[in-house]
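Sanity check. The docking grid for iron/sulfur cluster depends on where the pocket ends up, so I'm generating a full predicted complex first rather than guessing from homology. Inputs follow.
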Amino acid sequence: MKTVNLTIDGHPAIAQPGDTVLQVAQQHGISIPTLCHHPDLTPVGSCRLCLVEVDGLPNPVSACTLRIRDGMVVRTETPALTEARRGILSLLLCSYTAPVDGCDTEFLRLVRRYGAQVPEGIEPEPPCAVDSDPNPFVRVDLNRCILCTRCIRACNEIQGRFVWHPAGRGSDMRLVAAADTTMLAARCESCGLCAAYCPTGALSDKLSAGLPQPDRLVRTTCSYCGVGCQLDLNLKDNTIVGVTSAPAAPVNGMALCVKGRYGYGYVNHAERLRTPQVRRYLLEGTAPRARPADRGEWAAVSWETALDLVATKLEQVRRDSGADTIGVLASAKCTNEENYLMQKFARQVLGTHNVDHCARLCHASTVAGLAMCFGSGAMSNTMTDVTQHAQAMLIIGSNTTEQHPVFGAQIRQAVLRRGMKLVVADPRRIDMAEFATLHLRQRPGTDIALINGILQIVLANGWQDQRFIDERCEDFDEFRATVARYTPEVVAGITGVAVVDLHHAAEILARSRPMAVVWAMGITQHTSGVLNVLSLGNLQMLLGNLGVPGGGVNPLRGQNNVQGACDMGALPNVYPGYQPVASVEAAQRFAAAWRLTGTEAYPALSQQQGLTVTELTPRAGDGTIRALYIMGEDPALTEPDANNARACLEACEFLVVQEILPSATAEYADVLLPGASFAEKDGTFTNTERRIQRVRRALDPPGEARPDWAIIAELARRVLRLQARVPSGQWAGWNYAAPAQIMDEIAALTPSYAGVSYDRLERGEQLHWPVKSYNHPGTPILHVGSFTRGKGRFHAVDYLPPHEQPDAEYPLLLTTGRVLYHWHGGELTRRVAALMEVCPEPLVEISPEDARALGLRHADPILVRSRRGTMAARALITDRVAPGVVFANFHFPGPQNANNLTVAALDPIAKIPEYKVCAARIEAAVDGGTLNAAR
Ligand code: SF4
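Predicted complex below; grid placement will be based on this.
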């Protein structure tokens, strides 16, 4: 491409056509002051601070909007420009009615640099109210506002929320939320992006107000969802005083959601577990306890006492009744290194494949289904790829803007900025539906019929990619014969989606390629979860949307490291890197690597898979499983039919819980081991798009709490000593000095992580697995050229109705999910006061029609009942749900737990429960007292 030659401040510069003078100056290390400008935002040239002189132009012009020309001669700082800038800043100071002393903002640094002052004779405007908006996260002080509009553009262009607007004219102009209301009423998502871009402090982080300035920043990865945003922890002494954007963060840039930016309060929460605790009966030698339900008092003990006790008991159970009477739960909240160690502990030290984690409850059907289609069960493309290249997108069963908010905002940008066509298929009118070309509102649990209907229309119109099918896929004919039965009329009858909308959806998805499919738990948490995933695999094979930029199968993983926990083999059927436990070769490889010698040599590991979470808990109840060791998971809260799950945990003979906060499950524990939060340990998380990222220790754990990897290793050493076994295989030992060493072991034993190391990550390399060797760059897009299993396999999938349907006694269809301001069981977010201020209790969405029939008004206390239990909540009357459907979030414990209602029916392949559909009824609570009593 032809370059442009120009001169800036006497220096020759070469640049690309189309660049602005400001960009070229910055590329050549020349600083031009700006205020309204930010490289992420559309330039508006309104503050005029970046004026430059250009030979041949009569007046100075804004460098942020001026495109370069060949031969241009530019001066960026002359006495006249300096004087002009001082004047501009002085005028801005006239409307800046806040104190300037002691404040350090972008604006005030420029004021000082240019010596600007309020001009003599000009009266400052009267001050406005300080902290004028009740939003608990963003502090509004319009005394500092200079109307640079960075907040407006950030909210519009990045978040896609359109909260802020200028109101009034001339000197009366001011910033308002929507039509001069509060931020939350203007549908603000409290992401704090406006504050992050504000150069004056007019909008700032309320949680940091009045706190000491940080003395260091530590870059790490968010502890909430699988998007994997990076952020800077702002630290003072051993406390987080704020979180700020890490502008070069590869996934998210400046963007964070409300939980990532403001949900850190749990880290320094007063309830953090600080000391190992055991039940007193264990110390007094009265075990087994007299009554299963009566675990008695806690006693704080030393680590030696607690770990000796756990090691002795686990070894005793192993010797007495076999390793398979012990179950281990790893954690999608913990690091890759910790999950690797947890499954190594189960397999090598205890000798069981009974290891699982909460992926069972969210994406087990994705992993199984995609492996059946393609041989690999992960997101095929990256978030940046699909938001930049997809011409169309199908979002099905994903409330993306609330559950994966930064990715949700990126999808909104793709729609708004480049016209990507969006089809949303969801029984609820979720926020994303507002941005959709088409919203399909299928009945809950009818996804297979819906997808088959679309497939049938594609085939009937010849819109399939026959070449892709012929060259790269197999078993097409049986699939084709099956979907032929799903005519639009049949599908409309099952799903409730109009025939015309089915045709419209098929046409958009088939004729705008590449098309990306995005899904989450709305697809997976069904008894037909695996079949749902197979249907989506069919769709993308039929349209040839695999192995290409902008296409792919894109399941959004829930927890921060659920992808990594699966990769690490914290699953009962696979070793790390999805090497099947049924494989003789894999068993031999791990037996050699983890070899132990001693009185009892390393046992040959079974080639039978172990038990899943959803099998371990019931068997703990009936005594088949005698001991459970749970790290960072909360089955008492998160399992379906929670009343039964709690009864099983209560009956469990020996329960060890390793946690950072007292969870619902901790109530049933015999031993409580205090772990470290994400901010207190080193490690890695793998985000939903298979990107491996560093987690960095910024704080010391509270009290005697320890990083989980160190606890597991110490426990393993103790059990091995009791067994009189000594590590002798190359990777059999447990003496890790730091998590980097654990990653080296992972790389040695996990082909897809073979080239991953802390050195590479610290150098800033962006690694998406598979990373096949130290020189391999990683694999942002899967299935290019061929599938992991060779050919992609079509599956003939028939619609199966949900396990439980509404009836006369329970006439409503209950579906469950999450809300923006909480995360999963809420163990972390319920400890963040500002999040609780916005969402303090469960609201159950009910249609206006059903509310009228039940005589309910908005916010009335209600009791939701199913065949399994009762949930106390308040009614949120909204047309987000259709008549006959109610939606409950599952973030609250005890009587407010939606899982008191859900059904423990499982997908037969993935063993994932059907959280998304059960029959329920709603009663008005007699008065508010009923709700309180139910708590
Ligand atoms: Fe954290 Fe997810 Fe929010 Fe990003 S989108 S800040 S990873 S919760």
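Relevant for the grid: Residues 928-935 have pLDDT under 50 and may be disordered.
Also worth noting: The CA atoms of residues 582 and 607 lie 4 Å apart.
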